[in-house]
Structures are given as C-alpha cells and as structure tokens.
Amino acid sequence: MSPDFERVAAELAPQVAGRLLALAEQGGTEADFRREAARVLEEAASAAGMTIVPRDEFSVARGRVDSVYNRLILEYKRPGLLRADGRTRPNLIAVQQVKDYIVDMARRERREASRLAGVITDGSFLIFVRRVGDGWSEPETYPVSPASVERLLRLLFSLSTGAALIPENLVDDFGPRTTRARWAIRALNRALESSREPLVFKLFEQWQVFFSEATDYREWAERIETKPEFRALVASLWTRDEIRHLNPAKVFFVLHTYYALLIKLVASLAAARFAGRTTAPLSGIATKTGEELRMAFVEIERGGLFKANGIRNFLEGDFFRWYVSAWNPDIEETVSTLVQRLAEYDPGALELAPENARDLLKKLYHNLLPREIRHDLGEYYTPDWLAERLIRQTLGPADLGNAARRVLDPACGSGTFLVIRTSGNGRPARGKIRR
Fold first, then answer.
1. d(CA 283, CA 296)
2. Burial of 69 (0-12, 13-18, 19+ CB in 10 A)
3. Number of C-alpha atoms within 13 angstroms, CB side, residue 41?
4. 385 Cβ contact list (under 8 Å, min separation 6)
C-alpha cells in the first residue's frame, strides 16, 4: 500500500466511521446494511484513487461469503447483533463463520490462510480475524471509531490491490526460473568477467576465501562441474555455449550478489513499513537513469535506505557491492528492472502478519539455490520448532519473547534464532532484535 493510501485512510476514517454508525442507528435488515455499507467503502476507495470490485455472495465449502475483496473477507451482520464482549454467542458464531470462510477460500484459491484476513461488522462494532501459523490470533472486537475504521481501510486498500510482499510473489517475480532473474544473473556475470576495476577483483578474491572457509566449497570445488545439481542450475540460467566458459566460483558469487541485492531492496520496504515512513523508499529510485541511478545504488550500498529508518551499520563490509564499481549498461538495466518491479509491491501483508516477515529471506534463498547444492556446501537451515526447543534448553522458557535481553548470534543466516527468541514462538515481536 502506498503512503498516499495510508494518508487517505487516516483522513477518511472519521467520515467513514460516522456513516457506518449512522447506518447502524437506522437498523434494518442485514441485506440493507450490507448494500449501504459496501457503497460507503467503495466511495472511500474511490477517494483513494482505487477501484475495488468485490465478489458478493461468493460460495465456498461452508456457506456464502458476503463480500471478498481479493484477500479480504468482509462479513456484514444485522445492525445491533454484535456486542462489545467478544465472548457473547453472536460474536463467537460470527468469528467461527469467518474462520471457516478463510480456510475454505485459502484451499479453493491455493493460498496460505495466513495471507487472508477477515473483518466482521454490524455498523457498531468491527471484529478482525486472521490466521497465525497453525492457529488463530485472538479475535479483536472494537467499537466503530476513526481508529478502528482506519485499520479497516488500511486492510481494504492493501489487500484489495497490489502485489503483496510475500515469499510466493517474490519467487514468482524474481525466482531463478523467471526471465528477470536469468537476465540479471547473466548480466552480473558478464560484468564480473569484463571488469578491470581492481576493487571488483579484490572483493571477489576475498569473498572466495571466506566462502571456502564458511562452507564445504573448498572440498567440493574440484568436482563441482560434474555435479548433476550444479549442471542443472547453470543450464537453467545460461545457454550451452555460455556454460563452456563459466567459472563455478564466479557463478556462486553472482548468484549471491543477485540475492543480496534483492534482499537489500526487499528489506528496505519492510523497514520503511515498520518505521512508519510516509514516503515509498523505492518509488523515487525507480524513475532514475544513468549516473543518477548508479549514485542511488551507491547510497543504498552505504546503507542509506536503512539509515533513513534509524537502522545503522547494516551494510558494512558487504562483498556484494562490487556491481556499482563494475557499472555498465547491462547492470543499469538489471537494477532498474528490479527496483521498478519492487516499487509496485505492497508491504501491507507484513502489517497483517508481521511474524511472516522472516519467511521472505528464507524461502527466496531456498528457491534461488536448490537444496542439493546448499547441502553439498554444508548449508542447513534450522527449522523453527528446533530453534525454539534449543532456546528453551539453553536460555530457558522465560527468555522467549524477552526483547530486553541482548544476545549475539554470529553468522545468523536468516535470523531464525533471533526472531523466535525475541518474538516468542512466532508471535509478533514488540522489541528490537539486536544483531
């Protein structure tokens, strides 16, 4: 969701709340309320420059959903039905109904249930429902007010349109089987091979030493070109003629460069979202070309996008900044393509389920390098359940969710131990992760 949508949501919330409360006071049937309330929400979306088209009376396995706005299920109830106490029978029945709808919708459309949200309203109250992991978040019942309606509008705007910032979409847009990834990786490899900049060679040389020490690459290097999984990987990215001239070490270097660049850009979107920034971090960069674009990426590699959000020392000593020194038309087109597509992403899904943010790193990397290659290199990712068990055994159960305590996790990978220790078994963290 763009910052403009967020601003408009805040501006419109008092008016929308007043109109919903007025409809609740009028009473009437559920059908009457649904018709008028839907019109209020559609007018709000129009004011935000959006056109939302709900699927009404949408049939699923266990009933008919009142309205579906892409990934938001909106269930209307007769005015006066819901109560402030979420434990009352009408509220509990409505919540269970929406939970069933979310599960049925996810199964029908082959989505993860945690990527959907449900909202129930009778004009006087709003109940927010969502899936977290294998369970459910505690249903939240709020009186209709500017604050609660602003949350409703933010969900409506973010889940109705745009590419959600979730692993599945990132893999579809930037995974190794996409034309975008193949072009980027081959362009990086050509730039690495042709560059005469001493810094580029030094960074590659130093990375090669560290990579060999951190993985089993040194033992694997002599037979790497004969490994079926490696041959399949390069065959999916390069032509047969190009493969003859490939240097395996450089293949891994450019693969990790592509992944690192992508993750820096994705992380900037997430950081800006949670920092409450009012400007989209990538929209301005997406319009730049030539030297302006190169300097923008020089600043990115200095950590500029993260310093703007209060995060410092994030990109110190990064081997994968070499591409700004080897800059050429291929590199320019590559980074421009990446940033233009990512600028269209909506990080609103992270607000819906912050605990899913850690999947962005892990799932994207798992799709970039096949499991067999990662395992041959000695790379194994600790599953969440095992990380939690180890934390309980070493630091004690009371340490889960204790954001005030400092811990050090060198070579933390995708941060599984840090996130679980800070958040407490996958629940949204309230503190900061110190690395």
1. 12
2. buried
3. 28
4. none
Residue type, 187: A
- Joined tokens for residue 111: 């989505």
Q: For residues 167 and 363, is the Cβ–Cβ distance under 8 A?
A: yes
Q: Judge contact between 260 and 320, C-beta under 8 A.
A: yes
Question: Per DSSP, what are the bridge partners of residue 346?
Answer: 164
Amino acid identity for residue 251 in this structure: V
pLDDT band at 327; cut points 50, 70, 90:
very high
Report the DSSP pairing between strands 117-121 and 72-76: parallel
Please list, in sequence order, all residues whose beta carbon lies within 8 angstroms of the beta carbon of residue 239, skipping any fewer than 6 positions away.
none
- Residue 80 confidence (pLDDT) above 90: yes
Strand 163-164 and strand 72-76: the pairing is unpaired
Q: Which residues contact 128 (CB under 8 A, 6 or more apart)?
A: 117, 118, 119, 139, 140, 142, 151, 155
Say which range, 24-38, 127-141, 407-421, has the weakest mean pLDDT: 407-421
Under 8 Å between Cβ of 64 and 72: no
- Which sign does the torsion angle of CA 309, 313, 318, 323 carry? positive
Cβ atoms of 329 and 183 within 8 Å: the answer is: no
Pair type for strands 117-121 and 125-132: antiparallel
Q: What is the mean pLDDT of residues 47-54?
A: 77
Locate all alpha helices (DSSP H) within 48-145, ordered by sequence: 89-108
